[in-house]
């Protein structure tokens, strides 16, 4: 791999950073272990030094120096990624954006926020809510993740269905390029058709093309009313029918459309001790949230939608939640799905996008494949559960295979088979978690070689010495 | 300029295309003059041959041949651009996408359309409406413009406020690269965080990086109700206050928020003979459209909004239009603004994005500047009118300077002064019309040199021989 060609950090380098007045932690004195470990203790690194620049100029000085001396750099925001993308596996310098955490500007008319990359997502959301807005992105890691990391992983999350992607919402970026030049593309304009939109390259690049130091982002008006309906269904295709009806009858107020299947529901009840929002058991569950600007109107729309759902016999059970505490309980139930699986056994988790017509087949095909290898389906099979839940509206599925123990034949049976299956059914091998440390090699299954070659050419163009997060996301040719 | 280095089309080349079975028009037999002229008769070209490929494979054959023989190519969709981007100024081959006009797929659950680039926007809108959707983009040229051109110019248009940008709505592209390789990035997935989003580079590239042959685009649910309010105001800042209130009270149903000033209104009345939607004369006019899924709810929301507007004494006059014919008349009044100016004299038109706080200053500063040069303000000044209208919600302004005749000192007085002014006030020199043939040289005023250099590096990387639309948008270094 190319990254091994780069140089380790020397005492001269440390002296340079100290002289430049850059705050740091290093292994000889004290380096907090959490910078070398991801939040699920899955990926660990061996960085010897963490730098804490306070300004874009300092980031520029650091990268110019590292590029000149061929020292590799891993940028870290909240280090809350789940794909190992922010871990320094090869002794790279960690460049933490922790101390670049100021709001630069909020335009209350245009609804545009400009903020340093190290701002924590939840802090920004709280801040803009005081001005009548919400951030267009929200995710489970909101208390820890930082906006620069959200941009760098092209975070999807819970508001995607309503507000769309980072590619649409990010209006501008300030990026320090690997050679230290500052790419000032921190525009705050919604319409801008003047040349190539170069900032787009850094959205989802997982820190492999430069360091995003500031973000300009379009905000959404803060909704004033919310409600949730949970449906119990007995056929997967009815989920899609419900989605089409929701779009027709709930129209502009639908803000989330989630589903999970029976076994997911059981696992949350069993391992998190939460009460199922509806019962008795159904084959499938759908959770629909609306957010709007008028409680009365939103309630009426929901009633019309549910009448239609019942008239078409789509759901066996329907329950509406309008009380704040009850709604939070439903969201909590939904959001504990991943951790409940972790508690139930040794989880292999996958984050795919798939066209609707192939979504359920993913679960059936995976079960069949694992059964055919003798790894699933019997009472004492190595894999206890294979489950599916996800964001229907975004075509984003999370598939879990829960084994009795890590190791054995399970991972080799799943990979690359599952990536190949997803790629050959029009899916993506990484929907919202990024490629990180592990999935770059599976990219070929869902992206044509011309696309992958073009990515590598761009990597070579912008980071010719390969100092930025080597081995992650897209590496050099 | 680099493009002069490329070769003219020879009879050998014509023979090659004929042998390859590619339909064509050429000057020796008959070449329809409209391929060498833009729709406003402003830009003219001198292409000798227009090719009409029917398949992506044919486009690939054409480009591979042209790249090998260093022959320049201008791609043409509906040729309805207003910036000369699709005109073959230097005898380039025109590659028309006219015959690539099939819908490839519509996913009725996901709401995703995949179509050939040569599909006319209005045809696509009609087609998807049959399935309960609308296109996320609409513009005045809808009867003629093609989806490939919409993507290549990053078209903004009339639905931008509600549905956002092409960068957010386009899910995938099929692009033939200058060397003939087919970049199959025709994904139909909403969430996809797997590597660099290379398709983004072609959105807004105005055909300088390759030929977009197919587009996958996210559709919006078709709204079932619409209404329009027109407000008369006497201060520019009240427009912004009305916008903030609309976001609060009309929330998720606002679909357009347009403004124009007094003189624009007079010019439409005088030169198009349309009746002003409200009267008597106001300093400023605001037009707010809502589109939603329930007529009754939408009407109530509009009433609450207008009560608030009146309580805060924002508007001197308010009128609501809910009748279909009346609403069409208001839109017609608004959409005739550009053509009315053309009829009133010799129009210099500018398409800028500007942050709200500088929007009105643009008009005042331009008037003052032209007055100081003795070109505006007196009874017989060379410039009769300087006017402003635009899309407030998108920060997109159109400024017109109407002269008594073309030529003289007017253009030199306006340019580059006006681009410089816009650039130094955080604006963009091209909001939704693209850079085209003329504005590339002004890009430096609104984009930093690192951004422009990066664009040029990307052009060099993807089109090293500079055969794609040379001299337009971003040219090689």
Automatic annotation (TrEMBL), chains A, B:
GO terms for molecular function: D-lactate dehydrogenase (cytochrome) activity; FAD binding. It catalyses: (R)-lactate + 2 Fe(III)-[cytochrome c] = 2 Fe(II)-[cytochrome c] + pyruvate + 2 H(+). GO terms for cellular component: mitochondrion. InterPro entries: FAD-bd_oxidored_4_C, FAD-bd_PCMH, FAD-bd_PCMH-like_sf, FAD-bd_PCMH_sub1, FAD-bd_PCMH_sub2, FAD-linked_Oxase-like_C, FAD-oxidored/transferase_4, Oxid_FAD_bind_N. Keywords: FAD, Flavoprotein, Oxidoreductase. The keyword Oxidoreductase applies. The keyword Chloroplast does not apply. Its EC number is 1.1.99.40. Its cofactor is FAD. Pfam families: FAD-oxidase_C, FAD_binding_4. Residues 43-222 form the FAD-binding PCMH-type domain. PANTHER family: D-2-HYDROXYGLUTARATE DEHYDROGENASE, MITOCHONDRIAL (PTHR43716:SF1). Belongs to the FAD-binding oxidoreductase/transferase type 4 family. This is D-lactate ferricytochrome c oxidoreductase. It comes from Coemansia brasiliensis.
């Amino acid at each position: 791999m190319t990254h091994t060609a780069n140089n380790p950090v020397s005492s001269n380098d440390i002296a340079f950073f100290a002289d430049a007045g850059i705050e740091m932690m290093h292994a000889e004195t004290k380096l907090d272990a959490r910078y070398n470990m991801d939040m699920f203790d899955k990926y660990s690194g061996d960085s010897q030094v963490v730098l804490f620049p306070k300004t874009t100029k300092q980031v520029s000085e650091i990268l110019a120096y590292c590029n000149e001396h061929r020292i590799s750099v891993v940028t870290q925001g909240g280090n809350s990624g789940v794909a190992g993308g922010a871990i320094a596996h090869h002794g790279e310098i960690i460049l933490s954006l922790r101390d670049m955490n100021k709001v630069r500007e909020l335009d209350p008319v245009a609804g545009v926020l400009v903020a340093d990359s190290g701002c924590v997502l939840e802090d920004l959301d709280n801040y803009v809510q005081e001005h009548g807005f919400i951030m267009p992105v929200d995710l489970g890691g909101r208390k820890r993740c930082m906006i620069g990391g959200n941009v760098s992983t092209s975070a999807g999350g819970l508001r995607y269905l309503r507000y769309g992607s980072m590619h649409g919402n990010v209006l501008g970026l300030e990026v320090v390029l690997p050679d230290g030049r500052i790419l000032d593309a921190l525009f705050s304009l919604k319409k801008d058709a003047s040349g190539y939109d170069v900032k787009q390259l850094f959205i989802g690049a997982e820190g492999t093309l430069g360091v995003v130091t500031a973000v300009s982002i379009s905000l959404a008006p803060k909704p004033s009313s919310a409600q949730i309906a949970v449906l119990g269904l007995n056929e997967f295709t009815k989920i899609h029918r419900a989605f089409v009806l929701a779009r027709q009858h709930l129209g502009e107020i639908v803000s989330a459309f989630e589903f999970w299947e029976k076994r997911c529901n059981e696992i949350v009840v069993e391992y998190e001790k939460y009460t199922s929002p509806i019962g008795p058991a159904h084959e499938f569950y759908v959770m629909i949230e609306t957010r709007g600007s008028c409680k009365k109107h939103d309630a009426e729309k929901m009633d019309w939608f549910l009448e239609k759902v019942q008239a078409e016999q789509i759901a066996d059970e329907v329950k509406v939640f309008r009380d704040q505490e009850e709604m939070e309980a439903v969201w909590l139930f939904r959001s504990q799905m991943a951790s409940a699986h972790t508690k139930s056994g040794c989880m292999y988790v996958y984050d795919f996008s798939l066209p609707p017509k192939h979504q359920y087949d993913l679960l059936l095909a995976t079960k069949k494949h694992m059964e055919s290898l003798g790894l699933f389906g019997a009472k004492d099979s190595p894999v206890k559960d294979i489950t599916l839940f996800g964001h229907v509206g975004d075509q984003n599925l999370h598939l879990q295979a829960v084994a009795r123990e890590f190791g054995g034949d399970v991972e080799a049976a799943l990979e690359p088979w599952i990536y190949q299956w997803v790629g050959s059914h029009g899916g993506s091998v990484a929907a919202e978690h990024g490629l990180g440390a592990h999935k770059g090699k599976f990219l070929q299954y869902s992206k044509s070689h011309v696309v992958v070659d073009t990515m590598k050419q761009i990597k070579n163009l912008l980071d010719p010495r390969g100092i930025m997060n080597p081995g992650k996301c897209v590496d050099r040719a």
